[in-house]
Design brief:
Elements lengths: L15 E5 L2 E4 L4 E4 L2 H4 L8 H13 L10 H13 L4 E5 L2 H18 L7 E5 L8 H7 L2 H4 L9 E4 L4 H7 L4 E6 L2 E2 L5 E2 L2 H14 L2 E5 L23 E4 L10 E5 L20 H14 L2 H24 L4 E7 L2 E6 L3 H10 L2 E2 L1 E3 L3 E4 L7 H19 L1
Parallel strand pairs: 3-15, 5-6, 5-7, 7-10, 10-11
Antiparallel strand pairs: 1-2, 2-3, 4-12, 8-9, 11-12, 13-14, 14-17, 16-17
The structure holds pyridoxal-5'-phosphate.
Pyridoxal-5'-phosphate (PLP) binds next to helix 4.
Length: about 400
């Protein structure tokens, strides 16, 4: 008999009832060190006082009005994002995949309005993930996500990740944009080298097409810059954001330059909940903290510490771990044993990691994780690896 909750997830046998910083407390009282952060969502950990305060203050004032009216909290957060990034304008969504929907619509409308209705194709890459909406699954194109869900939204050209030679010939008079994650998340924590992001930007400029970055997982301080593309010294035309921006409140955004957004006039897009006062009040509080250069410096320092300890861990357990990769506090360990088993062995030691493709476990701790928690987490992973070897 089908469960009351649609059974689309393989859930771990864990039920968390409370969170404190980098810790999750299981219903039976066990305290888990959380290196998953709800898949890079709890950027400031659990129950951060500034976020709880922003949420409760807004909850006591006003929850929702709809986008029929002005929403000051939405403008405040949009202003902050515009100040902090390449973007001139922001649309708020409730999720990453809704941001993907708008990014695709925006790119197509851009060319339509410029008198090029034939420019509809978007180039994407193997191993990518852009969410589970019809545009999202068609964009990523993997069989796992698309099988049985046809007909798929047309207009996506899928290239092999890292195949530089395939890129230029794939751009045709129908190409509207290139869409890429600066660091693939679900794909197994695979960064696009800075040189390659620069090359993509140059190629887009040369061919006159748009560059769309999906920073849903790698954005909002995760890599030690507010947004990951800053490491490469480039700017996109359109960027998708979600996960960390709400710190646990469902919130996403599409950021764009004035030119890229020029087709999105009144009536062309909307969302009932997107940008509601609660979400934007929390998002503002997240950005105030994560956007502080001192905070980001500390993320980079801790990222160096975690990475160094993980390199040691991998070297100590060559039968379990293959290699460490990633950027900032978005790290992956490619495993030699099945990564799902490594994640389970971590649960037994009360440390949470997240499986990804390419047999990789993801470590996405809250950006507020302490040095002591990093040391404790790695020692628990060491115990997990020892238990697997035994
Ligand atoms: C999680 C994710 C999405 C989808 O976000 P949802 O909020 O689950 O819709 C899109 N792109 C990337 C890179 C992601 O990691």
């Amino acid at each position: 008999m089908i469960t009351s909750v649609l059974p689309t997830y393989n859930r771990a046998p864990l039920t968390f009832v409370k969170g404190e910083g980098a810790w999750l407390i299981e219903a039976d009282g066990r305290r888990f060190l959380d290196l998953g952060a709800g898949i890079a969502v709890n950027a400031l950990g659990h129950a951060h006082p500034a976020l709880t305060q922003a949420l409760t203050e807004q909850a006591n004032a006003l929850w929702h009005t709809s986008n029929l009216y002005h929403i000051p909290q939405q403008k405040t957060l949009a202003d902050k994002l515009v100040d902090a990034t390449f973007a001139d304008t922001v649309f708020f969504t409730n999720s990453g995949t809704e941001a993907c929907e708008l990014a695709v619509k925006m790119a197509r409308k851009y060319w339509y309005d410029k008198g090029h209705p034939e420019k509809v194709d978007i180039i994407t890459f193997s191993g990518s993930f852009h969410g589970r909406s019809s545009a999202g699954i068609a964009a990523a194109g993997s069989e796992k996500m698309t099988k049985g869900f046809g007909p798929l939204l047309p207009g996506f050209t899928h290239l092999e990740f890292g195949d530089h030679d395939a890129l230029a010939p794939a751009i045709t008079e129908k190409t509207a944009a290139i869409l890429i994650e600066p660091v693939q998340g679900e794909g197994g924590i695979i960064p696009v080298p800075d040189q390659c992001l620069k090359g993509l930007r140059d190629l887009c400029d040369e061919k006159g097409i748009l560059l769309i970055l999906d920073e849903v997982q790698c954005g909002v301080g995760r890599t030690g810059k507010l947004f990951a593309h800053e490491w490469a010294g480039i700017e996109p035309d359109i960027m998708m954001v979600a996960k960390g921006i709400g710190g646990g409140f469902p919130l996403g955004a599409v950021l764009a330059t004035e030119d890229a957004a020029s087709g999105m006039t009144a009536g062309t897009h909307g969302s009932t909940y997107g940008g509601n006062p609660l979400g934007c009040a929390v998002g503002s509080a997240v950005l105030d903290i994560v956007g502080d250069p001192a905070f980001l410096n500390d993320v980079n320092r801790k990222a160096g510490l975690l990475r160094q300890k993980l390199e040691g861990l991998a070297a100590a357990h060559p039968d379990v771990f293959d290699m460490v990769r990633g950027s900032g506090l978005m790290l992956g360990i490619k495993c030699k044993l099945p990564c799902a088993d490594v994640v389970s062995a971590g649960y037994a030691q009360e440390v949470i990691t997240v499986p990804a493709a390419d047999n990789t476990i993801r470590l996405l701790p809250p950006l507020t994780v302490t040095d002591a928690e990093i040391a404790e987490a790695v020692s628990r992973l060491d115990a997990a690896a020892k238990a697997m070897a035994a």
